[in-house]
Amino acid sequence: MLEQTLIQTLLLLGGTVFVVLVFQRMRIPPSLAYLLVGVMLGSHTAGPVVAEQGIRVIAEFGIVFLLFTIGLSFSLPQIYALRHTILGLGTAQVALTTAIVGLIAWLSGLPASAAFVVGAVFAQSSTTIITKQLMEQGENQTRHGRLGTTMSVFQDITAVPFVVVIPVLGVAAMQEVAGALGMALLKAGLAFGIVLLSGRYLLKPLFHLVAERRSAELFTLTVLFVSLVAAWTTQSLGLSMAFGAFLAGMVLGDTEFRHQVEATIRPFRDVLLGLFFVSIGMLIEPAALPEIWLEALLGTLLLLGSKVLLVTGIVRYSGVDLPTALRTGMVLAVGGEFGFALLAIGLEGGIIDSAAAQIALTSVLFSMVLAPFLIKANQPLSTWLNRRLGNEASDPEFPSVSMLQPASGRHVVICGYGRTGQVVARFLEAESISFIAFDMDPIIVREARMAGHPVYYGDTADPIVLESASVVSSTLVVITHDDRTAAVKTIQLIRQHQPSLPIIVRTRDEGGVEELRRAGATEVIPETLEAGMVMVSHSLLALQVPLYRVTRYLQEQRASRYPMLRELFRGTLDAMATPDDADVERLHAIKLSAGSPAVGHTLKQLASEMQEVMVTALVRGQQRYRYPAEDTELQEEDVVVLLGLPDDLRQAERSLTEGV
């Protein structure tokens, strides 16, 4: 038994590695490679057969982790912010595609529930194929590229209600669907409440505790545990495991650990999702293709045609020009991987029979094969269609080089948010230059985020963290941490995709300068140079150079920056390195709750009571105010950022929270 299992595992892994390598060399999406492996090793073809049951059980976790990752990308505030634009366009596209395709399928003779599943499957688009092809064409930052990518990602969110609804269709008679669906939605609301409350009061403190241990192994175990516990919670309520994983991801997506959690779960997701595609491939019956090829071809034409027309109409109705709307429709026409998941749920629940599922499955596969060619030709096709419609205006977006630039503008990535990273951030903030920072010290991350800084917990030597930070669209990367090995790896990863992106690196001494430059660093700043400037000032004084001239030299370089250089958050490593730091000033963020005696008082009154500390910033809602006016009146939920000595800060915190 053990030997047979080992042989089947080797067949699965060996076949997958070989086929994926071949497909990657041919620049064909890996998802199609996994499907082909499933066909080759399934029971419907000649040759070796791998047991399907075990693969399907394991592959189900691929969908769990996929929904978990999608949840990380869409926190509640983000979904609320998109409600008037992408939310409306995405909802209209999915709803109309499901309704129209479902109606056509029902008129063709399918039962209503099966027709609904087909409509839901056809409404999905492949984010993987879309983003990969657009990036290869250099169109990922064009207007139609951004619209297509964002709407395809939004479709993954709309798949969550389908995950809840489709199983209900299988367990209830048609006259009982409304009641069963209402109960399912009630359970979904209960699950949302459970996960949301546990996330707010349990998950965030748990991840802070785990991050403080600085153990990658423990962090990975925690991510797996949290995602699977959430999946088990919704399954216990009679809902999909994937729905619970999505909720957990959505809760964590609003925390500073989002990027590192995504980097941790992604390898598990990709491998298990590959197994999921293999399990889908095992459902394909090549022998049935001669009988269903016409229906599958018609289904492909229905899928591509309906989505091109619907998306074009919806985007055009929203006020976008016709050429851009047409190109967006062509980008989104492809079928999606998540449609396979919905199809598998429908098959498992007995909602759709095998014959109809084979036609739908083959139709989606055909569309995925044709998609790269359709996306590649979106510009000439759009131009041709415009001319046929009598619109001779050229596509204003395609030839514009400026439109290919990142939408974020002057975007800087800071790797390491210790003393140096915070100083860099201060000056970027003073120049109104946007930035995103990463650090592995959870205390610094927590305090900085509380004070309104865009800082996340994450290791930038991980390619997934760099990808989530949008390094490819940034204008500068600054590496300020002390880990030279990690710095070299980060530089090499960036250089694989952005050979010309400026990278400035800080190092302790000149010993690592050459290694970092060979790796691809644009500039390397050893701390010994800064120490040398101090030595120069003392040397000039010893040589009888007038004090005013030495002072002028220093003032020209750094005098105006001294306040910013002192404003630092201090983490666990700082405390370990300098335990007797009672004479070192630091920043500390304090949140005012309802019982705080400071609520209702002005900053001027606060300054008169706590003369030993200084208010450097005030965070109210989503806004951060640096050096706020003295007449500013403090409110509940305000975050006050204080600068002072540790003992004075502790006394100030007691004064602010007294009576809470």
TrEMBL record:
Gene3D superfamilies per record: 1.20.1530.20, NAD(P)-binding Rossmann-like Domain, Regulator of K+ conductance, C-terminal domain
Membrane topology: Multi-pass membrane protein
SUPFAM superfamilies, sorted: NAD(P)-binding Rossmann-fold domains, TrkA C-terminal domain-like
Location(s) in or outside the cell: Membrane
Taxonomy, superkingdom: Bacteria
InterPro entries noted in UniProt: Cation/H_exchanger_TM, Na+/solute_symporter_sf, NAD(P)-bd_dom_sf, RCK_C, RCK_C_sf, RCK_N
RCK C-terminal domain location: 574-658
Cited PROSITE patterns: RCK_C, RCK_N
TM regions (residue ranges): 6-23, 32-51, 57-74, 86-107, 152-174, 180-203, 215-232, 267-284, 296-317, 329-349, 355-375
UniProt keyword list: Antiport, Ion transport, Membrane, Potassium, Potassium transport, Transmembrane, Transmembrane helix, Transport
Keyword Iron: no
Domain (RCK N-terminal) ranges: 409-526
One Pfam match: TrkA_N
Protein's name according to its UniProt entry: Cation:proton antiporter
Protein's organism: Marinobacter azerbaijanicus
Source species taxonomy: Bacteria, Pseudomonadati, Pseudomonadota, Gammaproteobacteria, Pseudomonadales
